[in-house]
Amino acid sequence: LTKNLITIDGPSGSGKGTITLMVAEKLGWHILDSGALYRVLGIAAQRHGIPLDQQEQITQLARNMDIQFVLNEKSGEIEPVFEGENVGLDIRTDEAGQAASQVAIIPSVRDALLARQRDFYREPGLVADGRDMGTIVFPEAPAKIFLTASAECRAERRYNQLKSKGVSANMRALLDSIKARDERDRTRSVAPLVPAEGAFVVDSSNLTIDQVMAQVIDFVVEKL
Ligand code: C5P
Questions:
Q1: Domain 5-219 indexed as CATH 3.30.200.20
Q2: Is 0.95 exceeded by the ipTM?
């Protein structure tokens, strides 16, 4: 039985989030924003006063954390609710992204989140967004996409995205932060950021969202 699964992996700011929403909407499928899980975990650790390198305590937290996802009717985005509080805005800060990538290095944390992520699969299908969706979490997915773009492009997009959400941002700091996070994600020993075998690689640096979407849909139609 081939599952209706599309994985979209890539570095932060590559346009994954937007493309994931658009593909899911077009197909009427569900979404997994796996980065949000790591971001909530980072925030949860900070709120519980656990240093980000305390592997055992963070793993416990990952196993037990009380997190749900709700649809924001206004934006159409899925937002996490942690311990009863909507943290949709809090997880989007750059600090939360850095914290996420620090807890994401810990192998036992990744293990603890595996089943939770696989549980997101529902009929009629799932579009899963992350770093290791095609390599580790859903290796059986029939359609795998790897979306990338230059660090400069991604910093600029993140800048505009944060501004539009009313979050303050500094271009230079964002670029440094993106490069630091790329380095951590690409060089970690467990589930490093690499294209899955057979993934369709799209460099979105010089493409509009609609152009990326057109290429992705062509690929998906051919694979499913
Ligand atoms: O995609 P997003 O920027 O929200 O992810 C935040 C961080 O969470 C990433 O930099 C990465 O370290 C981690 N992450 C991961 N595996 C995933 C999704 C996110 O390690 N599948």
A1: no
A2: yes
